[in-house]
Design a protein that fits this description.
The protein has 97 residues and is an alpha+beta fold. The chain has one domain: SH3 type barrels, CATH 2.30.30.40. 16% of the residues lie in helices and 41% in strands. The protein is built from 1 helix and 7 strands. The strands form 2 sheets. The chain has a 5-stranded antiparallel β-sheet with strand order 6-5-4-1-7, with no helix packed on it. It is globular and about 30 Å long.
Length: 97
Amino acid sequence: MRIAALFAAVAMTFAAAMPAQAWSSLYEVYGVAEGDMLKMRAGPDTGYRVIVGLPNGTVVRVYNCESSGAVQWCKVSLKEARGLVGWVSRSYLREQK
């Protein structure tokens, strides 16, 4: 019994120490109009400032999504620049194959 409890405690410690990226999924920006970009915002709503524009084909890591009004917003980071984190509309993301 003690070994099982010790194992569970160790497993929980490692899980808590793992970075959020370990559970993220890769998605691709798509469906943005020609000449436009998907706006990555500082928060999950259009009232937040724009951090950067993302063209179609940009690969992002999705951490979680939440609804704000009728729009579902996802917290993302760029695949190649994980330090750049913001929120984008879920409508313009598709799971990367």
